[in-house]
Design goal:
Distance between the termini: 134 Å
Family: Belongs to the metallo-dependent hydrolases superfamily. Hydantoinase/dihydropyrimidinase family.
Shape: globular
Helix content: 25-40%
Structural class: alpha/beta
Radius of gyration: 36 Å
Strand content: 15-25%
EC number: 3.5.2.2
CATH topology of one domain: TIM Barrel
CATH architecture of one domain: Alpha-Beta Barrel
InterPro entries: Amidohydro-rel, Hydantoinase/dihydroPyrase, Metal-dep_hydrolase_composite, Metal_Hydrolase, Metallo-dep_Hydrolases_sf
GO biological process, one term: pyrimidine nucleobase catabolic process
Cofactor: Zn(2+)
Length: 730
């Protein structure tokens, strides 16, 4: 069957194989949106092979044409190699309307048993379908090339037939990358961008999206999410299904989540747990960072396995959450050293956890138990101090550092200072720190205030967001995430009497792009290319998935969005796709929105309607030694070795006397013994004289006379009251 048949041919082609259709539970929804149904077609050489399928699988045939019918054929028999022959055969000769719900098979009158079958399509008429167009049967005889008719062998194998629903042409838009903008069409096939340019020649049946007057950009990459995270006695409500669906609705097509092991849990065990949670649910591609919550030799070995076998290139340490996740400075040093050895990126949650713990106690003693206590116990200086300390440790280990959720101006300044000195440090502000401020903690409604509790906290300074946006614009801060970790009101209520027990976390995965566009592009701080850089391209480079992600280019993944700069909406929990019952951006008026989100070459969101498929996303390996991160470090390490060798001084070895430490210590101890203590060497009581001090008579009370002088120029001399002549004047 050709993927590029004409309208006439695609009604008349026949096949020497049985296409067995298995509809999914979401098939009807997909059909309504005239998109790709989540379907599987299994190629069977003859009717006898039908018995290998379970009888419970539904088989149907539907009217339509090949442009709306075909999808991947995952299991073509390896020996299907016969001559090509395509002919027209009328619908009436082998089927009728009353048998629409049954699989149609017919054996050819030849020596070889061959099956033919009506290929299923939608029950809803597509835009290219005419009312009088008959239901059709497709026959295809595969030639020796094993390629479908009319398609080059280099693009297809005998095991796959390309669906028209897997071909997409985005026409008339302005293609925006981080390094430039151009007017061009984009052709996506099998999830990969195959052509970019004007007047493209594409196969027939390709679905076309009119993007005239719109921007075509890489899908967003959220560098910081926490889906299904067990935390503070509960679990975040957005799982990998609702979380990635919400991400897609907001224009994000890749998320990077965090594996956070329990204190004594192995990294590999925790990694396996996260994969199990995510793989069956994700609607877009995802990668994983791994947190280090304890340090020992086994953790170091697990880090090595994760980088070499599991595709992990980033490890996070906590300087906060004392007694739960927090590491000490020497442990952080070891983690950073191991990251550099493996070619990974060190990540840090920067807050001084020890001081915070003491300030929390102080707030409690003062009777401050509400959400405002969270902000008051985590002042901005403690974020800045920890950020500077982490940068210093990273500098000493020569390890690249990624500072997550930069929430304050002073912490951002520490990143700025380090980058000005040439250190490889990346800063990540989040949607929350860019879009709102910490005045919310003083709201009179407890639920409202508690909904904003996160760590580090939002800063009670309205200039913080614009300041961080300026640093994104000048390149000081690099990428943006959300720290999306959502809890409902009844979960936040765990801390109704003690702010220390309020689960930390806010939303943002759906709102990030719209908030940054509104606060950045609409204010003139960012241009469209910088917007792409800070929402996708920079993250792709840092975590070594560029240009597979983060770019509209031939060979890149077909993850892209069509952005309408003129579109507007007001954010509300009543309309968002996130699972939480509160939105920290409630009432925020957005100007500029994604109107189409394309994931792996398929429309997953269009004009407010989600059609994302559960489990369609894939785990994304992030290789170590990212060139964008380590290219400078390679050369620096070489130069450092040379400089160290140059500073080494060649000397003659020391041949003099070396003190006996044990003997010297014994002598010092004997001199320090108080008067009257037994001298262990002679058995005699130790006196001031024998201890090397001047001998003085005691006072009448038996104590040392502090008024007597022990000064002498030579020898031993001591004045006593009895020897001193005193004249008393009356």
């Amino acid at each position: 069957m050709s993927s590029s048949l004409s309208d006439v041919e695609d009604q008349s082609a026949s096949t020497d194989a049985c296409f067995y259709y298995i509809p999914s539970t979401t098939d009807n929804d997909q059909i309504i949106h005239n998109s790709y149904p989540e379907s599987n077609f299994y190629v069977i050489k003859n009717t006898q092979q039908l018995s290998s399928f379970p009888s419970s699988i539904m088989t149907v045939s539907r009217p339509g044409n090949a442009r709306t019918l075909f999808t991947i054929v995952p299991s073509m028999p390896p020996d299907t190699m016969i001559n090509t022959n395509v002919w027209k055969e009328k619908h009436e000769s082998f089927m009728n309307e009353s048998s629409m719900s049954e699989m149609k098979t017919e054996t050819n009158p030849s020596t070889t048993t061959r099956a033919r079958v009506t290929v299923p399509s939608t029950n809803v008429k597509s835009t290219s379908e005419k009312k009088d167009k008959p239901e059709f049967v497709v026959r295809t005889y595969y030639p020796d090339s094993n390629a479908p008719l009319g398609v080059s062998v280099s693009k297809f194998s005998k095991n796959h037939i390309v669906s028209s629903q897997q071909r997409l042409l985005i026409k008339g838009g302005r293609v925006v990358n981080d390094d430039g903008t151009t007017l061009a069409d984009v052709f996506v096939e099998e999830g990969i961008i195959k052509q970019i340019g004007l007047n493209l020649v594409v196969p027939g049946g390709t679905k076309t999206i009119d993007a005239t007057g719109k921007l075509v950009m890489p899908g967003g990459i959220d560098t910081h999410t926490h889906f299904e995270l067990p935390f503070m006695g509960t679990k975040s409500v957005d799982d990998f299904l609702s979380g990635t669906r919400a991400a897609i609705a907001g224009g994000t097509t890749t998320i990077l989540d965090f594996v956070i092991p329990a204190k004594e849990q192995s990294l590999l065990e925790a990694y396996a747990q996260w994969r199990e949670r995510a793989d069956a649910k994700v609607c877009c591609d995802y990668g994983l960072h791994v947190a280090i919550t304890t340090w020992n030799d086994q953790v170091a070995q697990d880090m090595e396995k994760l980088t070499k076998e599991k595709g992990v290139n980033s490890f996070k340490v906590f300087m906060a959450y004392k007694g739960v996740f927090m590491l000490q400075d020497d442990e952080i040093f070891q983690v950073f050293s191991k990251c550099r050895e493996l070619g990974a990126i060190a990540m840090v949650h920067a807050e001084n956890g020890s001081v915070i713990s003491e300030l929390e106690k102080e707030m409690s003693q003062l009777g401050i138990t509400g959400p405002e206590g969270h902000l008051l116990s985590r002042p901005e200086k403690l974020e800045a101090e920890a950020t500077n300390r982490a940068i210093t440790i990273a500098d000493q280990t020569r390890c690249p550092l990624y500072v997550v959720h930069v929430m304050s101006k002073t912490a951002a300044d520490k990143v700025t200072e380090a980058r000005l000195k040439g250190q490889i440090v990346f800063g990540e502000p989040i949607a929350a720190s860019l879009g709102i401020d910490g005045s919310q903690y003083f709201h009179t409604c407890w639920r409202h205030a508690a909904a904003h509790v996160m760590s580090p906290p939002l800063r009670n300074d309205v200039t913080t967001g614009p300041y961080l946006m300026d640093l994104l614009a000048n390149g000081t801060l690099s990428a943006t995430g959300t720290d999306h970790c959502t809890f409902n009101a009844n979960q936040k209520a765990l801390g109704k009497d003690d702010f220390r027990k309020i689960p930390n976390g806010v939303n943002g995965v759906e709102d990030r792009l719209a908030v940054i566009w509104t606060k950045g592009v609409e204010t003139g701080k960012l241009d469209v290319n910088q917007f792409v850089a800070v929402t996708s391209s920079n993250a792709a480079r840092i975590f070594n998935i560029y240009p597979k992600k983060g770019r509209i280019a031939v060979g890149s993944d077909g993850d892209c969005i069509i952005w309408d700069p003129a579109a507007t909406k007001t954010i509300s929990a009543s309309t968002h796709h996130q699972a939480c019952d509160f939105n920290i951006f409630e009432g925020f008026h957005c100007h500029g929105l994604p109107i189409v989100t394309i994931v792996a070459g398929k429309i997953a969101y269009e004009n407010g309607q989600l059609s994302a498929i559960q489990g369609s996303g894939k785990y994304l390996e992030t290789p170590c030694f990212a060139e964008y991160v380590y290219q400078k470090l390679y050369k620096r390490e070489q130069l450092r070795e040379q400089q160290m060798k140059q500073q080494k001084i060649e000397r003659e070895p020391y041949t003099g006397e070396v003190i006996d430490i044990n003997k010297a210590t014994s002598e010092a101890d004997s001199k320090a013994k108080p008067k009257g203590q037994i001298n262990t060497s002679s058995g005699e009581p130790t006196t001031a004289a024998t201890a090397g001090f001047h001998s003085r008579p005691a006072t009448r009370a038996g104590g040392r006379n502090l008024l007597d002088s022990s000064f002498t120029l030579s020898g031993t001399y001591c004045e006593t009251r009895s020897e001193r002549s005193v004249e008393v004047f009356r």
